[in-house]
Amino acid sequence: MPQDINTTNITQASFPQKSRIVFMGTPQLAATILDKLINWQGGEIIAVYTQPDRPAGRGYSLKASEVKTLALKHKLSVYQPLNFKNHEDIKNLAAFKPDFLIVAAYGLILPQAVLDIPKYLPINVHTSLLPFYRGAAPIQRAVMNAEVVSGITIMKMEAGLDTGPILLQKALAIGINETAGTLHDQMAELGAELLIEALEKIKQGKIQPLAQDNTKASYAAKLSKEDGLINFNQKALKIHAHIRGVTPYPGAFAFLTRDDEPSIKVNFLAGEMLNDSTAYNNYIALNQQNERPKHGTILGLENDKLAVVCQDKIYLIPQLQPAGKKIMSAVAFYNGYLAKFKHCRFSLT
């Protein structure tokens, strides 16, 4: 059992009627949370911190974060330090004298000097049920690992990476066809609601922080483009989870080989597992006499979806996008890229 953590400075009597809040966040998830926080009657956003504008798009023009765009729309003061290694940035933050520091997907590891600034608590909205999936990509990694449940943790921040005491948690089911993108949107809404609930309970003196069980901790490393590469030499359920977990970013892909043609990179969307085993069993029976069956082999079309061999089933892909081309249906892809070839398969190179 996690031990209780005493927070005697948080009582109903000492809590201000309208708390001074500094918000820190960058992407859309954080913007969704900020939007709800702006409308919370128990607090006032006195400053918003977000990552510096970054080059984006083909022209590499500077693009503001979703949090900055929302903050400016509401005429909130926005600050964009590169990091907090400069003492002047810490001094400027402290000058706001916030009651709470609220952090959601900010993208910076905050030093202890920053975490010590708020009068009451530095609070983080984390998109997993801590101590599971600490780190930068908890939503994607949970889906990739075929988890059936994740959730939101509202936690008190400390110097360690997502190691602080838990203030409030709520679970969220992950559907069999949920992608990281669709789960992200649900997490954003749940995170906003749970944050407000946590703040209200703190105000009422009903929050008792609990230490995390570090023996159960797992880490969700940030995704790279290479994480999108799909290996069809696995069971279909694992492949399905991997594709869902990297959708929309960095995107699922494999390399298409056709007879003696050079391989081409092909991106694809999540599909479905063909539960009827007839096609798979027929393929195995045909090939086991000659050589080991090649997983990733494309059998053709099934229900207007591309049928690909996995370790235990056929996986059906509805839409694909060859490198440099627009996304297309499986039927269009088959007719344009596969119909005239004898042996086609998805591989790792």
UniProtKB/TrEMBL annotation:
GO terms for cellular component: cytosol. Residues 20-199 form the Formyl transferase N-terminal domain. Its EC number is 2.1.2.9. Keywords: Protein biosynthesis, Transferase. InterPro entries: Fmt, Formyl_trans_C, Formyl_trans_C_sf, Formyl_transf_N, Formyl_transf_N_sf, Formyl_transferase-like_C_sf, GART_AS, Met-tRNA-FMT_C. (6S)-5,6,7,8-tetrahydrofolate binds at S128, L129, L130, P131. It holds the Pfam family Formyl_trans_C. It catalyses: L-methionyl-tRNA(fMet) + (6R)-10-formyltetrahydrofolate = N-formyl-L-methionyl-tRNA(fMet) + (6S)-5,6,7,8-tetrahydrofolate + H(+). CDD domains: FMT_core_Met-tRNA-FMT_N, Met_tRNA_FMT_C. One of its GO terms (molecular function) is methionyl-tRNA formyltransferase activity. Residues 222-337 form the Formyl transferase C-terminal domain. Belongs to the Fmt family. HAMAP family: Formyl_trans. Attaches a formyl group to the free amino group of methionyl-tRNA(fMet). The formyl group appears to play a dual role in the initiator identity of N-formylmethionyl-tRNA by promoting its recognition by IF2 and preventing the misappropriation of this tRNA by the elongation apparatus. This is Methionyl-tRNA formyltransferase. It comes from Desulfovibrio litoralis DSM 11393.
